[in-house]
Amino acid sequence: METPKRLFTGLILSLLFSLSAFSQERFYLNLNFSLGSPQNEFRDNVDNLGVGGFGQFSYRLPETPLHIGASLGFLVYGSDTRKESFNPNIPEVKVDVTTTNSILLGHLLMRLQARQGAFRPYLTGLLGFNYLQTQTSVKSERRWGEEDEIASSTNFDDATFSYGGGAGLMIRVFTPPKVEGENNPLSGVYIDLGINTILGGEAEYLKKGSIYQDADGKLIYDVHRSKTDLITWHIGITFEF
């Protein structure tokens, strides 16, 4: 389902274009490692943590604590790998068949954050979508442990509206020295700690073990449907420009 991703990409490009006139103002780029814990109905079906990462871009409106921007994250909440023969007539050659269950989270954001200081707490509001997909790939082993993907297929996907909010703290760890005659765009580097609650609408999805074969060899998809609420934890680094 490409429509949510295309829509979000369009929103990001529009945001960047509209903010290009404010090149002398403060911009923030954040990259982090993230964990996602399914909640409520979603947790009844998926009881393991999602692991992945998020990236955020925001712009602080002049002379205010208000930031506007966008967030894009990816979490894997289930994965299963098995060995199979590459061909029934060549049982000596094995390949890895991996099925991965993941969720893509795209949101526009608004944030209230302290403008100055080494410690900058913030509150965030989010509005966007959750995109859930299950993909299977076939890879062959190569020398030095590398793998070469032979084929892949999206087994199932769905998307739904989501919104939420969170809080966090940025801690300054580096301020570049000012050198006369040089214009360094980097203003500071921060460790970023945060937590978000994301309320996702209903979607259909698969989880680990949802794809199997019956006695006749027919492929079965055990599809689940529920709301897709999550709590996400983040630790990463933020660059201030």
- Total discrete domains: 1
CATH overall fold name: Porin
DSSP helix fraction: under 10%
Major sheet strand order: 1-2-3-4-5-6-7-12
Could you characterize the architecture of this molecule?
The chain has 241 residues and is mainly beta. The protein has one domain: Beta Barrel (Porin), CATH 2.40.160. The chain is 10% helix and 66% strand. The chain has two helices and twelve strands. The chain has helices spanning 3-19, 40-45, and strands at 27-38, 50-60, 66-87, 90-113, 119-141, 147-174, 188-200, 202-205, 211-213, 219-221, 224-227, 230-240. Strands 1-2-3-4-5-6-7-12 form an eight-stranded antiparallel β-barrel. A two-stranded antiparallel sheet has the order 8-11. Strand 2 (50-60) and strand 3 form a beta hairpin. The two termini are 35 Å apart.
Topology, element by element:
Layout lengths: L2 H17 L7 E12 L1 H6 L4 E11 L5 E22 L2 E24 L5 E23 L5 E28 L13 E13 L1 E4 L5 E3 L5 E3 L2 E4 L2 E11 L1
Summarize this structure briefly.
By secondary structure, this protein is mostly beta strands.
Highlighted features:
single chain, 241 residues, mainly beta, Porin, eight-stranded antiparallel barrel, two-stranded antiparallel ribbon, 2 helices, 12 strands, 66% strand, elongated
